[in-house]
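Good morning N.,

You mentioned wanting to compare the apo and holo forms, so I went ahead and generated the holo version with iron/sulfur cluster. This is what I fed in:
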Amino acid sequence: MTPSISPISKTAFLKYDQCSKAFFFYKKHPYLRDKISKEKQFTFNRGHNVGHLAQQLFPGGVDVSEKVKNSKSAFELTQQLIKENIHTIYEATFIFNGVLVMVDILHFDGTTWIAYEVKSSLKISEAYIKDASLQYYVLKNSLENFSDLFLVTLNGNYVFENELDLKQLFKKRSIKIGAEENLDFFSNTIEQMNLVLERNAIPDIPIGKQCFSPYDCDFLGTCWKNTQTEKSIFKIGKSDRDQLFALYFSGADTVDKIDLTSDLKPNIKIQANCINTGEAFINKIEIKEFCEKIKGNFCFLDMEVWSPAIPKYNGTTPFEQIPFLFSICYKEKNEIVFKNYLKPIESDSRELFLLELLKAIDGFDTILVFDKNLESQVLGKLCNLFPSHKKEIDKVRAKMIDLSEPIQNFNFYHPKFNGNFSLKAVAGIFNEQSGYASLEIASGIVAMHKYEGLLTEESEIISQQTKQQLMEYCNLDTLTCQRFFEYLQEKIKE
Ligand code: SF4
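and this is what came out, ligand included:
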């Protein structure tokens, strides 16, 4: 029989598990949800693609989601397919105790039904286990001959060679033992969830650490609206969230209410002072020392990497970082010059990327990079891949200086950072955030996905536009570095 009430989805359950207010908003006031960012959307799409590929572990199944539009019909179709002895069902839909789950893959092995939940990830998190255990609870109570549920993730040790070996690409782990132990937890929680809906009042939950764990909540825009003041305490970054919430709930919702003589970390005091006064903090002695490290000809370097969940090139593993774009920026006769290279996606050609990079930075004595971890890792990997270039790569690494060092060490802080320490935040000093905002590609994650899109893009015009946008984005990163360095130099002269 088809359940008649509007069921609670797995997403709704996970929201409740994070915060009952988020669950209530999700069910009763969904219009309050924050707009989905491009980055989040790309992550969803990637998950969908990986899930789709994993279906081929059990080929020839029927995809319920392709045949029906709503959850009621999906439930009915699943029941019908089971009756018809269809042995593999994708997005099989079940409802028990008012909870609806859609199982990525459901397979009958001749004796029992086994479910598979696919995650586009290398690791299994607590949140994944809870999500899968809820599905287990529903299946256990609504599917005859159900025996087990496996979490399927990507195998970080799989090395692609010529064609995908799906059995090696994915790995699976049963969650049966833990799920069996937690069946009561789900019954009790569902009861409490129904009570929240019946009460029909917004749960009185203040903002707190739960807003970001295990995921950033979808209702931050609503709940955090009142904290978005000019001097909000939450504009302090790199700090212990417990301490910030303790201050906030003790009445110090803005930095001017913090007792700066109290026992607070120096970096919190620096940030609070800057937000209070609207003035930047600069440790001139340290910044001068930093600037003096930059010798001779110098340039600014930025790289972009692509981490495909499904490896595309021989010898690579899932999520391996493939460098695909670099920009260098420097001044020549007082003019800004850019050099960049975008690796074609169709072929690996990382050696060509390396050669282009070595050529572009040849002749520079110092190479400034904002947060050099990524670039160092990429060069390390290229060195392993192409040991004949080791000497040149080592020289480049020795010339690299991290431009984020003064910020990381709190020798420089600007109130416009708003607790964010990225290059995009630095751009805010020059009102350049609007520069990023006006770009089609304004973050590394979007750049990565746009690049990946070139693999399937059929229109030559759109491909060319995307390539242009990628280079503009990377150039703006190096230009921001250049401006920041000049800004620091000016500041120590003042
Ligand atoms: S923003 Fe925080 S308090 Fe508000 S619904 Fe989300 S988790 Fe709950």
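The chain is about 45% helix and 15% strand.

Happy to go through it together on a call whenever suits you.

Best,
F.
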